[in-house]
Amino acid sequence: MTRATDPADGPEPEPPPHWEADVVVADGGTVHLRPIRPSDAEALVAFHGGLSQRTRYLRYFSAYPRIPERDLYRFTHVDHHDRVALIVELAGQIIAVGRYERHAGTDTAEVAFVVADAHQGRGIGSVLLEHLAAAAREVGLRRFIAVVLAENTPMIRVFRDAGYEITRHVEYGEVNLEFDVGQTSVTEAVMREREQRAEARSIARLLNPQSVAVVGASNDEGKIGNAVFRNLLRMGLDGPLYPVNPEARHVHGVRAYPTVLDVPDAIDVVVIAVPAAAVPGVVEQCAERQDARVIVNLQRADAWRLIDNALEAFKADGAADRLHQRVYTEAEIEVEDDRAIFDQEIGVARAAIGDGRTVAPGVTERNDAIVGAMPCGRDSR
Length: 381
Known about the structure:
The chain is an alpha+beta fold and 381 residues long.
């Protein structure tokens, strides 16, 4: 049985809340980053067991086939000050771990991280380094040391490309890297450029989809789903179009599917045109697919209920983790006059209703609809 906590240890120290975030990575996908907890022990064992022998060797300099009980306890019990560990999650599973440990009595710490094989090359190491460095600065650390095998060129590149002034020393096949963690104009520029590239890729499929599913597509001309699907057919989408309607076998002559989970092929964008009460369930299905972007499009009568109900569903425990994206979990609602706006930190999408103006793409001049867009799951490209 995996050990998670020891009652004799007393209460666990709490990390700063702002160390937890949803982060857009290099390929445009979004992951959840947070400090490790003792309850992550079993998930950490599963993560380690899924690493290839090569990845374990490059991280631990030995085969290290399993985590001994003593190490597992130490890995999952940190003080969030001298010893810090951050995990990266996707769909509730750990896909990366980064940590630093202060050298006793100094302002220097050793830093290391490891990323699951399937997620290497997505820029997750760079994100972990940024967040670990920020945490180190908060607690008064000035320098990081990293010991990397000379053959581990991808890891060396992560440190080199971060913009820090690095001192290198090679000995017995190991590369010792030392650098100040203080922010400079170079490190800030590197971080800003990384974020801009990631966010641009995050919305690329939303703006230029190769396949679209319309949930709520209908043969009833009085419904928004009918208009959306008909317009997409008319505009000639360069790729497949999937109507999703559990009560129809075909919509405008195109085969329909009961749910988005039943669509057999990859979906770039899902348009949701259903009553507000059904939106959270559809979004959960999209998160389960992990290959789609979501556009919510519903009549104004339902829009207010979306604001009141669906946003809370997005923020609810579990739902936010499954969605894995910063936009809606950190969204705020601004209400002024007869207008409501989903406002978000990175500005991927904005929706408005009620004052007769077109304030966002997809919102009609009559403003009888609310349209929002959110990344939902990992980019498959």
